[in-house]
Amino acid sequence: MSYEWDERKNASNLQKHGVSFEEAQTTWIDLRGIEIFDSIHSVTEDRFLRIAHSIVGRLLLTSFVEQSDGSVIRIISSREATKQEREVYEERI
C-alpha cells in the first residue's frame, strides 16, 4: 500500500493542527486503529475516518480516501483526536 497527499494541504494541516501527513501515515501501523465511513463528507467520493496512534504515540483522527483496489490511500486531513473520539477508540479496542 502507498500513500499520497497534496503538499500544500500538508503544510496547511501542519500549521492548523500541528500534525503532518507523514505522521498521519504512521497510524496505519497501529493494528488496533479503527475506521469509520464518513457519510457527511462523502458527497463526491467515499471518505473514511481513521482513529489510531501515530508512531510518536499521539491518537490522531485522519480523514482519507482509499482507491477501489486498496493500493493507494490519499490523506485529506489529520488532527489529534477529541475526548469523544478518544472514547470511541477506547470502546472499540
Can you give a write-up of this model?
The chain has helices at residues 7-17, 21-25, 83-92; strands spanning 2-4, 34-37, 48-53, 59-66, 72-80. The protein is built from three helices and five strands. It has one domain: Ribonuclease toxin, BrnT, of type II toxin-antitoxin system (Nuclear Transport Factor 2, Chain: A, Roll). With 93 residues, the protein is an alpha+beta fold.
Secondary structure tally, helices:
3
What's the overall average pLDDT, rounded?
95
* Low-pLDDT residue intervals, each spanning 5 or more residues: none
CATH architecture: Roll
Strand order of the largest sheet: 1-5-4-3-2
Distance between the termini: 24 Å
As a percent range, the share of helical residues equals: 25-40%
Rg calculated over all Cα atoms: 12 Å
Number-wise, the strands total 5
* Percentage beta strand: 25-35%
- Report the sheet with the most strands, covering strand number, pairing sense and barrel closure: 5 strands, mixed
- The best one-word shape is globular
Which structural class matches the secondary elements? Answer: alpha+beta
Q: Provide the succession of SSEs.
A: EHHEEEEH
CATH topology: Nuclear Transport Factor 2, Chain: A
The domain tally reads 1
CATH homologous group name: Ribonuclease toxin, BrnT, of type II toxin-antitoxin system
What's the CATH class, please? Alpha Beta
